[in-house]
Amino acid sequence: MNLTFSARELQDLAIAWVALGVAFAIFFAGGGSRALSMLADQGLIQPLVVSLVTAGLGFLLHELAHKVVAVRFDQIAEFRADYGMLFIAVVSAMVGFLFAAPGAVHHRGRLTAREHGLIALAGPVTNGLLALVFAPIYLAGLFVGSPLLSLIGGRGVAINLFLAAFNLVPFGPLDGKTVLGWSKAAFVLTFVPAAAVTVVVVFVLGIGF
Hints:
- By secondary structure, the protein is mainly α.
- It contains eight helices and two strands, in the order H-H-H-E-H-E-H-H-H-H.
- It has helices spanning 7-28, 32-42, 45-72, 83-94, 113-144, 147-167, 175-182, 184-204, and strands spanning 76-81, 103-108.
- Helix 5 (113-144) runs antiparallel to helix 6 and helix 7 packs antiparallel against helix 8.
- The chain is globular.
- The chain starts with 6 loop residues before the first helix and ends in a 5-residue tail after the last helix.
């Protein structure tokens, strides 16, 4: 497998990562004047780093997973940032809600339904695996009494679980529609557990928020 990145693709990945980090830092600080006041008092570095490591990596590794699997199936695939949507992400965070669609991996070449489905599934599966990576960080933070570690771990778990479940919704351009079109069994076996775990962890236990 020959996985390469063009100069433009690396630039788009870097800009999307930073823009998402800024947007999520503002969003988790409460948005608007409240966010600006909090970030001015506490500094921008820590909130930005936390957002880059959790939300930023969650979004970008999701997209890169699509690319890796597409290239595995002999596709020509590259990530392209959507600068308009990145701007909307930052602006929406300022007003207290967040709508983030940083871009997408575009690929071309002939694909079977199975290959197309596996490319789509790669993103949410990656987010699920990232949630597992962040879980012990969260627990370690609780064990040693480190608010920073528990924040990074908890937020990483929550964001990646939410990304996995949301992207598996079978609607519009989301991955779930492609997965369902390929295999109902694969869709049920991934979407149902992802949605159930997300509801429990994020909305019942309130981890990460």
